[in-house]
Amino acid sequence: MTIRMIFSLMQLLNIILKLRQQVLTTGGALLVVLVIWILPTACLAEEEALVPKLIFFEDFEEGDLLNSDKFRLHGKRPAVSLEGNLNVTLEHSRAGVDFRSELVPSGLPMPFFTGGQETVIGPIYWYAVKIRLNGPYSPDSDSGESLLQWIGMADSPDNTENARNPAAALMIRGKRYAFAARADSKPVTPSYGTPNRYTRNELLDLGPYSNDIGVWTCWIVNLRWNYLQGAILTIWKNGKILIDQKNVVLGYNDRKGPVFKFGLYKWAWNSRSTQVRFRRIEYDDLAIGTGMLNMSMLLPDGCINLESVKGNVHLDF
After folding, report:
1. Apex 316 CA angle, 312 and 317, nearest 5
2. Which one of 9, 59, 123, 246 is least enclosed by Cβ atoms within 10 Å?
């Protein structure tokens, strides 16, 4: 039994003692019996929620994948290579401006997702993907780019929150990887430029990327949304934990949770040029699930071992 469960048990027992003074002896006894029956079930449900389960997997082996309803496209259409990888290429030129090429997995199941893509507050999610930076991949000190994003679903009536930054994002800034982690407990996030706009606004350094150009890296993000307390953020790269945060804040005060997007987004190219004019990134073996991962569920190269999680739920490959 976890500390959280023990604390919950203490709270329930305190409630029972108070209610018992206000009800008949038989009613109080019945209440105790009901709690004794319900509490173990609730504890088992919470323990079960920690068991890793696979919900979504794509290895990009099908050439017509992008014509299916498995993904929604944002921006320029990527390509599926002959090797079975998703190839995302952006080029900034006078003939046209490409600044975004992202895909959103859709049709994800309830109760972990609403509308087929929005997460919810409470469950623990994990996302695993292989990423390869294709050269030339020279540093750009003028602008960064995101590789993975979790976009908050603003619900303000006047759409004033639409310009919010992602609740979380794996990015490249200069010569290094970085992870943006944001939270806001206010019902409506203030407009851009407002002091203390977010209750959390961190850029976590994940090290240099210079040795990763042309090679596959395995990224895993384990997280739970909560803009008040109790959020989780664990980031693995090639089997090594880079970030491990518990009981933090992460996400926005919205009715719906953030939506996951993967692909290349170089925001500066939307309005101007930067030092570099070309970017190419490949993605492979995208997996999404729930629960807490650990080292025993990883392969020697640090990628997710699907055999350790896919048997926990029904999923057709």
Report:
1. 105
2. 246
Which of 255, 245, 112 is closest to 168 using CA atoms?
Answer: 245
Summarize pLDDT for 226-267 with one digit per residue, the tens: 999 999 999 999 999 999 999 999 999 999 999 999 999 999
Check if the beta carbon of residue 289 is closer than 8 Å to that of residue 54. yes
In total, the chain counts a number of residues equal to 317
Q: Count the domains in the chain.
A: 2
Judge if 64 and 179 occupy the same domain: yes
pLDDT > 70? residue 214: yes
Q: Whole-model pTM?
A: 0.83
| Bond prior to 187 in cis (omega within 30° of 0) | no
Radius of gyration over every alpha carbon of the chain, rounded to an integer in angstroms: 22
